[in-house]
Queue: 4 jobs
Job 1
Amino acid sequence: MGLKSFAAKWLARREKSKVELWLKKPQYAQNETLSYLTSVLETTDFGIDHGITSNTNYDQWKTLVPLRDYEALYPYVERILEGELNVLWKGKPAYFCKTSGTTSGAKYIPMSDEGIEAQIKAARSALLLYINETGNSSFIDGKMIFLQGSPKLEKKQGISIGRLSGIVAHHVPGYLQRNRMPSWETNSIEDWEKKVDAIVDETMSQDMRLISGIPPWVQMYFERLLKKSGKKTIREIFPKFSVFAHGGVNYEPYKSTMEKLIGAKIDSIETYPASEGFIAFQDSQKEQGLLLNLDAGIFYEFVPVEDFHNENPRRISLEDVVVGVNYAIVLNTSSGLWGYVIGDTVKFVSSAPYRITVTGRLKHFISAFGEHVIAEEVEGAMTEIASKFQFSFTEFHVAPQVAPIEGLPYHEWFVESSSTVPEGFDSALDDKMQELNSYYKDLIKGKVLRPLKVTELPVGRFNSYMDSQGKLGGQNKLPRLSNDRNIADKLS
């Protein structure tokens, strides 16, 4: 055992003790967070505009601070971009995380020094809790790769601007820098295709032990490694590869394909980082769900999805959540986001401790006929039926076909795979969807819809689509389902 590995085990035990301080008193931790946030907020323009004082309690908070998305927050962000201080948080942000926007174009999400510190602390906690539970610290002595966006940052009004993963690259602890790959030069390549090829060349002869990234882009890296090396599995190239850290999308639909590429089942650590804050991370290989991060300077609110589009949706704090209910997650953060709806939906699988699964996006659903099919359902159905048929796929997307040339409307599933879709696969998939969604079942039985149709796509079609949108690689993710055919028509 190397010195770093030995030290990591000691740090892991210490980290477990630290996490248990807030894990065992979640309500106290959230109350303390709200108290701190309001004490700072009362000195800012936003706090003054909304009548916030250090004594504001949660019932008052819900009355004073309306729910808002980025478009509603933007007037305050614009003032920061123009050089004003103490607008959403004390002073000015350390960074702006630049993400893909909608009606406002690119989004600029403020991140304070406290915000970036919380991002690094949560990532460290996830790794150390894994070590504490499993005893595996050997990956610390080898090389680690983080597939991420470019670390090159812009500057505006003295504020650094970049992608979240690029910002985080500037804060990797010194003791990991010698183990970390790829090199700064390779990581700075903007073209994703060229970047992956360069990473392959740079890492193929290295002792890689931990690999981290969004699953579809790691899959792309693995496939190119195998093609370049002529090997059959990743474990032949990296025999000591033992941990896969991932986030950004649900891993289950990718799992069988990834394990086939790797050539073995290995431990994985799932994380839920966002530009708005590091929300949750996997703290156990044995328990379902991700531990809600209550040590991130975030006061959480939750809105039942069924109430979200009401004029006055019901808002609750952590102590009132119910296991098994779908919620829109709302953030109030030490980076200056208030009543902020990030667009994700989550479901609690445990309340002691509070663990969640990400079930989808508020904007990613199909309800062209009132069926309200969500990501959790299509991903669950695809994972189960693909496993049953031993069918490996690269990616998939679901969209409604409202006006077919003939026959009843249907849901069209675009599936990319190197093999042919097995006979009976679409029928089994439709049966599973009916089992998971009673509204969908009623529409099928009532002959409003006909059973789903699977459309096969050649390998590379999804990457070609993402490339055409300027979203190949990095933190970009393809929506699994859509209520229109904007993506579907481009894929077909």
Job 2
Amino acid sequence: MKKEDKSTIIKQLESTLGEYAHFYLADIGGLNAAQTNNLRRICYKEDIKLVVVKNTLLQKALDNLSVDFSELYGSLKGETSLMLSNTANVPAKVISEFSKQKSNKLKKPILKAAYVEESFYIGENYLEALLHVKSKNELIGELIALLQSPAKNVISALQSGGTTIHGVLKTLAER
């Protein structure tokens, strides 16, 4: 491959990585064409971009970004696929479900590493934890719901109490 081609690919990887908040490094090597196409189809439906990359070019692209990704460099061995998503746990769900299919005897894709919510997860033993990671927006939504709950209870009690008092006063006025 020519040096110009490599630099073009590195620039494309940089821009692609900049478009997504989270990415996973997975090993899909050994899957046949039908399984690979099925995985690509599932990723497309789940709004995941799946890219097979050369480890050296990915490392150079990661070097050029503002975040220090050196923790991931040990995972850049063998065949590597990049799964990019703006939802933190969707690629983990795809990896988990696809590797459990009966037709998938290799049990791939295998999680190598992930960069999710500005944290690094190295090794396939983190897959279960990544399945339950919530995005910042989900956590903010839960926090707002928790903060609104007491206020809603007070308003509800005041409204129901008002109708009760109104009923009592109406009954007394009729007597």
Job 3
Amino acid sequence: MTIIRKLFIANRAEIALRIVRTARRMGIATVVPWHQQDQFGPALAQADETVEVFGNPPVAAWLDINAMVNAALDAGCDAIHPGYGFLSENAAFAQAVADAGLIFVGPPASVIELMGDKITARKFAVAQGIPVTPSADEAEDPATFAERARNVGFPLLVKGAAGGGGKGMQIARREEELANAISIARAESQRYFGDGRLFAERFVEQPRHIEVQVFGDAHGQVIHLGERECSIQRRFQKLIEESPAPALPPGLRDRICDAAVKLASAANYVNAGTVECIVAPDGEFFFLEMNTRLQVEHPVTEMVTGLDLVELQLQVAQHGSLGLAQSDVKFSGHAIECRILAEDADAGFVPDTGKLLLLNTPSGPGVRFDGGVTQGAPITADFDSMLAKLVVHGADRKLAISRMRSALADTAMLGVTINNDFLSRVLRHPAFARGETDTGFLERHKAELAPDILSQAERQALLAVAASASPDIASTRIPEPYASMGAWRN
């Protein structure tokens, strides 16, 4: 048994704060890195220590393996938690952490190399008898990659081998779109993951995106914590996730969860991981990929199981044992997560920047706000546009939807455009209420999800009302002593 006394969190924003809070509750000190362009994150205020990191562009700071490992060593840390994104699925990083004598809070490098790489994971899934879509691997012969991809048949999904989170993915519906899809997918994969390798797979039309949360320990035990529905997406990035998946036949749910456990067990998987699948309209499912890390949407699983997934990660990293069996996992109610993004959903999901002048967060029964920004902070284009995650839980899906709609209405971020109005319209859509979701939902219902048109005067009036609700703004509206003098002063 190894005790973690001090934890280096090789990440930023919301997930860094999320890990800090659990580590603090467990009596583990934390160290969080920061960049000059990112010095307003709430995790920095709650961490025991902070350390400056350097990179140009700023995202490069979190992709520098040596810098991250050395910062952890210099701070006297025992372990590194990678969060999600950045180096979280980088086998070389996991190995460098281990070589430095530190604990990597995640699977060993060998497992990341096997399952974190999308290409090798697909081949491994086939060997376990788990179905995958037809594909072409660039590495087999780079010179003939485009030709072999064409032979798979259109539409095609071009993906980065080391990608995740919707990055490094482009769809080509026709042959003339393939070259551009390859170019964009490679550039994104190189930027976000430092790895430009690609593969292409047959794109299944109108699939549901279903994923299973798995956990393994050092004693060979692997369990699942249920499935999540992640079909509401734009540009292959998830916007709304929920658990359990609505309108999923019990038999299909069991087959998908059993396949996920089978795959993870065969890989000798340790710590948290997610097996992602797509489900075709006819009910056939295909293995998509395995994310060898904590997922952005892990809170919905926490809500329906009552488990703290970060605590489980740290427990496995320290003690090697999960401390619970499959029969110990109980599910209750329904949970939904919405990603609050700095973007204009009504203008093609264009990212927005600015200064966060006002931040109002929701609260109430079953409501959880995991934020990564603070009031007054600049919102730049240096990082991903996700500002926060709003999560709700209810006794059933109907109540969860109702609570989410109320929570979205109570969420305000002035100074930057966010997508909460758009998310509310999705939740109000009758097809969503019926659980009729797939990855083409937003495009298919585009016209119905368009906003009601407000005049400029109406928009300004609503913003003024929202701003006046802030005590910070209201209290400085008329400074003293003038506020006490009355209107005659003019």
Job 4
Amino acid sequence: MTKVFELMQEHDFEQVVYNYDEESGLKAIICIHDTTLGPALGGTRMWNYDNEEEALIDVLRLARGMTYKAAAAGLNLGGGKAVIIGDAEKDKSEGLWRAFGRFVQSLNGRYITAEDVNTTVEDMDFVAQETAHVTGLPGTSGDPSPVTAMGVWKAMKASAEEVYGTRDLNGKTVALQGVGSVGYYLARHIAEEGGSLIVTDIKEDRINRVKSEFGAEAVETDEIYGVDCDIFAPSALGAVINDDTIPQLKCDIVCGAANNILAEERHGDILHEKDILYAPDYVANAGGLMNVYDEMQEGGYEKERALRRTDRIFDNIKTVYEISRRDNIPTYKAADILAEERIASIRKVRSNYIIR
């Protein structure tokens, strides 16, 4: 039997809320990890989980990740996530999303939702009919992929400066795993700067597009890990840095758009020992979150402001590397310290100046 309170205590979660709606069939869990910096923001994932425990573990992991992403990005947001248990191909309905919107509304703004895996902006339109606590709607900030890609590109340049002494990617070879929405825009940044691309993807049309537009070289999906390159950029699946792939790597830097790139934390230790610089994913790929965050500012979304904020990813990554050198620790640990120090600092401020 899953011991929910023990799981919450392990990483100091604030709240886990279950919701069931018989009429629509909604089975949802919202997890709020930490609201020290602001309301918990995180997307809603719909997945046909094998069991309720699997759904709980997933939402806990994802919510905590959002806390660290927002904190390291310098945003006034906490971390949260929602999961809906169900088949996205069969179980979606207006009633389900309206019921979920009521569920979100019941938390009175402590949690703000958005689209995520197997959910769409159209789904969020239904949610928005029941609550104002939803972002990323049509007609606002739009597709976050270009901004996410821009942030990863900035992280890549910061990493190049760390390793090569120059942020210029001209002449550098990037092995790009995944050239979908974010990967395509990332490829364009690299190509426009004079970098060479070696790419792979499970969809042939995506590969053909970057070959045609950017002169990319394509390899099979299982070959991308072992190609000679300067930078390996995982921008599709998570957990791709693992016991099988690390021995194949022929790169100086790992920096990509995918979430949870390390299969386990110890794989970050191995990269550190092998002198392969790892740009922690939740710092590098925070551009999409920064873009959505701008919708919440007074006066509404301003594209230029969102892009200026995304520029800071360069400095955020450099700060991670400074902490790594200072403490002689792997970069994934340094990123956690960056996030945790900011949360601790604001927690002290708010405890010293209580507003009644």
